[in-house]
Amino acid sequence: MKFAKVFQQVLKEDHIPAEWVSAAIQYKALKKCINRVVCELEEFGLERDILREFLDNPAADAAADGDSNGSTNSGDEVAPLIEYGFEHGLIPKLTVTLDPRSEAYARLERLPQIKSSRLSVTRLPDNSSDNSNARVKIEINLRSDNEFFNMLLTELDQLDQLRRQQETQLLGLINELSTVISSVVDPAQHSHHHHFSSSSMSAQQADMYVWREIFKEYIEANIFFSTAEADSGAHDAEHARRRLLFFAQKVMGDRHEVATMSFRQFEADLSVELDATPNQGSSGDGTELQPHAPPPIEEIDDEYVYRSSQGPYSKALGLLKRVKSAGINGNKTSIENTNSNDNNDNKNNTNGKSNAVIAASPPSTQAAVSSKIRPSPNSLILRFKHPSSRPAFKSFWVLNHALLQALQFQTLNQTAITKILKKFDKQTALNSRHTFFPLISSSSAAESAVAAMSPSSSTSLITTTSGVAQYHPFVSSSLAKSICFVIAERLIPVTPQIDDFLCPICTSITYKPIRLDCTHIFCVRCLVLLQRAGEDRCPICRQNVVLDADERNLDHERLKFLKKHFPKETKAKQVETEKIIAKEQMDQLKSSGECIVM
């Protein structure tokens, strides 16, 4: 199947939002424009075979060097030199340097007046005595290639604008997610709301650990890019899809076979699990809440997308805002009513495809999905106790699915650009694709220009009058990778990871952290052992600061932070330390002699 049909088929079958499709590369229109470029070149006697012969002729450079040194024999015909470049913004320029004795030059001289008026002939200086053999430089003003590149850069400009809109929407969603999750996992939030019971405080701390585990799995999944040596760099769309499924598999309890399950089936499963309601009769004593059996799926949308006239993330963003307006610290019923009303709106909406909903499986699998899908008891989602956590995770999933969809869309259009430039070079033999990709980004496509790069062939050069070399954002960087950096900066730190607060000696949490004068931090137990051993050098930087440490080196702010965000770990470390101290005291008693009962 030809790429043009594949391109349109993928845009349709992957259910790309309508506003994205309208901004995509118009591959068929560009192909028609290439045909016009070929016809125009043939009118000037520059057929593809002739141009390719000129470009592939190894004598061109030698002829050029010989001419510059004045050593060209008057009886030898000089090979032509082809240059193809851009000047004054977007105006392409084809320059052919010919020997006036060549057949190609004779063809150009025989052109009608209407064609010859688009030629600019300049006789190059010649050091030989016979000026009749001086080479001629002819600039050919083509119109169709100007149309081609103008059309292509206009479409790239639209894709840039779409990318900026995506970034704005995604950043807004990340900020809302950060606010909601921060309030959900922050135990201090409840101290200001006296109407909350101890069970709510337990739910707050429980969800803090659930979100921490979710973000830990997210970091380890390396969905869109990896820093590992064996798998470093950005991932393509298919690899990212598999890693996203792997992450969801971990969150949902390791019961799915990612390799054999389609993305639609998996999202249908995830949707059921997100909608499963905790047992309302839970006592809230810290035990895990058991879910009800999920209701049967009566309505399944075959459109596994997030469609909306306001972008694919508007539903998730609206859900988070409704959670905030209902009150993150408000009663549970109000939050659940918000979600219930949201679901009812989806059922009553006759145009369900325009809503950003969690995708479901195709109708052919409805019976299988409704009868087999049951939430896993090991699912992290079912451990959520705060009513705002599930809507937040649903929005987090929408965020990552939107990033995956954006990556697929970007890859598809980058492939289309590569293919259309390759076809342009194949049909015209002008060799533009190796030097066209670095574009100058500007506010208007009419002001864009092509940045100069080292050409692949010495006889095919692209030049520009602009000195700015700025890559086009859509083709030079990954939106998914950029947003992942923002997620790592703004969202992941909401639930600090314990790996960032481990003692470098005992590799457990640095409870009662001692900050040495060299700023390195150790737990008090390890520091005491170092001082007992008479070791004065810091284990990390080797400065003599250990023996100078005393109670003034206790980092009270860090200690408060650890107690707040790692209550289980700090308590366990305290118990462990007390046991060690008790054992040491007992050993001292034993070493002092036998116990005597008076």
Describe the fold and architecture.
The chain has helices spanning 3-13, 18-23, 27-43, 48-56, 59-68, 103-109, 113-116, 144-185, 198-221, 237-251, 263-275, 314-326, 332-348, 366-372, 389-428, 433-436, 473-476, 479-491, 524-532, 556-565, 567-591, and strands at 81-87, 91-98, 119-123, 136-140, 225-226, 233-234, 513-515, 521-523. It is mainly alpha-helical and 598 residues long. The model is unreliable at 58-75, 191-201, 279-310, 330-373 and 440-470 (pLDDT under 50). It has three domains: 3-149 and 417-470, no CATH class; 161-411, no CATH class; 498-591, Herpes Virus-1. The protein is built from 21 helices and eight strands. The chain is elongated. Pfam families: SPX (PF03105), zf-C3HC4_3 (PF13920). Residues 1-438 form the SPX domain. Residues 503-542 form the RING-type domain.
